[in-house]
Design the sequence.
């Protein structure tokens, strides 16, 4: 009985440590972004949506953290290529397909689905070779959209998961070579979209207001990106790998806007990266909980 009680307590700690760490860091980032937008004259309806999205994402993540992982891992992995495929059914913006229009919502399919897909790939790819097929399908669709930022993000996650796998050297080489090749190809696709100040250039807006505010935004971005590494205690390899994959996904989101007109997550206006990151964190919390119970 004592052993069972200790396991339950450990499972609760593992589940809520990552939720709390990400929740605090991401809220600070979203709040700083809202403050920058308010000072810059961005309509309040836009930055209030970011705050609302944070709340919606938190509720979804807490719900996801209570679901059995076997029920959601496959859904999370295949949701990415399916959502990316649906973007081609929505009207293009200057030939670019990255969004799904759902009433008043303009959803970036990649940023909504890639965090959870990264966690699912880390959990499933060790035993299921077909998991790589789902990721390559998503990566190919990102090249076709085109979206070099998210293609690079997914490729980096795939390489990081495949590189340590020594039991299947041919598969490891094929995954790494294919992911790098497709990500490189994405950067050579024509991308005519121009940056929106409160989305892609939010850090520049902050520097124009006060350098200290911009530095605070950057610090919040980095802390949010690495919050998936919240203290795990003794964890099995799968949740550790999933945590690193999710952190790498977030770090790529933070870095790629400096190489093109790509959204700045959490601080910039955009519901998709806020909710998408929460979904990834919720799925990671599920992995940690079940690892602690087993």
Sequence:
């Amino acid at each position: 009985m004592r052993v069972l009680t200790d396991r339950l307590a450990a499972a609760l700690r593992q589940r809520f440590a990552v939720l709390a760490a990400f929740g605090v860091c991401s809220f600070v980032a979203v709040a700083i972004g809202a403050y920058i937008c308010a000072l810059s004259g961005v309509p309040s309806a836009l930055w209030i949506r970011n705050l609302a999205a944070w709340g919606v994402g938190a509720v979804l993540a807490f719900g996801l953290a209570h679901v059995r992982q076997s029920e959601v891992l496959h859904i999370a992995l295949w949701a990415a290529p399916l959502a990316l495929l649906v973007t081609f059914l929505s009207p293009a913006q200057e030939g670019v397909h990255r969004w799904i229009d759902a009433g008043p919502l303009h959803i970036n399919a990649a940023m909504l689905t890639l965090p959870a897909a990264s966690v699912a790939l880390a959990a499933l790819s060790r035993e299921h070779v077909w998991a790589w097929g789902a990721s390559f399908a998503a990566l190919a669709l990102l090249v076709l959209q085109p979206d070099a930022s998210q293609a690079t993000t997914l490729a980096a996650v795939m390489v990081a998961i495949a590189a340590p796998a020594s039991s299947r050297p041919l598969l490891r080489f094929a995954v790494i070579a294919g992911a790098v090749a497709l990500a490189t190809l994405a950067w050579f696709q024509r991308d005519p979209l121009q940056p929106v100040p409160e989305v892609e250039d939010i850090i520049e807006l902050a520097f124009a207001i006060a350098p200290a505010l911009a530095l605070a935004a950057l610090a919040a971005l980095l802390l949010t990106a690495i919050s998936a590494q919240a203290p795990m205690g003794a964890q099995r390899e799968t949740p550790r790998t999933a945590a690193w994959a999710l952190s790498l996904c977030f770090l790529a989101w933070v870095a790629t806007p400096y190489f093109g007109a790509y959204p700045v997550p959490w601080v910039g206006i955009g519901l998709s990266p806020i909710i998408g990151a929460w979904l990834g964190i919720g799925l990671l919390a599920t992995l940690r909980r079940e690892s602690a119970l087993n």
